[in-house]
Write a structure and sequence with these properties.
about 140 residues; N-terminal domain of TfIIb; 3 strands; mainly alpha; 2 domains; about 40% helix; 3-stranded antiparallel β-sheet
């Protein structure tokens, strides 16, 4: 199974049709295909549209709709893309969670921890990266 970076590189290198040699290609993100305009051959499929899922017609709309979040990082075993259920019993507004819901949140938190590292390789990688982070913080203390 290819990762996203390999797919991006492969898609970027398709510059001419392998059938007729034409350099007139269309990227159809709605169908996730790269199609030759000359002979109609589908040169690649299942391409990924890396752009936003919304449109902005001016700078103000673009700023309003911009997304923020933690960037992808290689210092966490899942590249920092997983969701973490916080240990505090608060909702997104900072209010206490009802006692009836706490048991459910506790179970969800436990299952989230279990599936986050699903096999021994991921578990070892997570442990190693945590240790590297600990050693690095000791070598370069925060000021």
């Amino acid at each position: 199974m290819e990762n996203i970076e390999q797919v991006e590189k492969r898609v970027e290198y398709i510059e001419e049709c392998p059938e007729c040699g034409s350099r007139s290609l269309s990227r159809d993100y709605e169908r996730a295909e790269i199609v030759c305009n000359n002979c109609g051959l589908v040169c690649d499929e299942k391409i990924i549209d890396m752009g936003p899922e919304w449109r902005a017609f001016d700078y103000e709309q673009r700023v309003k709709r911009s997304r923020v979040g933690a960037p992808m990082t290689y210092t966490i075993h899942d590249k920092g893309l997983s969701t973490v259920i916080d240990w505090r019993n608060k909702d997104s507004y900072g209010k206490d969670i009802a006692p009836k819901k706490r048991a459910q949140i506790y179970r969800l938190r436990k299952w989230q921890q279990r599936i986050r590292v699903s096999n021994a390789t991921e578990r070892n990688l997570a442990f190693a990266l945590t240790e590297l982070d600990r050693v690095a913080s000791r070598l370069h203390p925060a000021t």
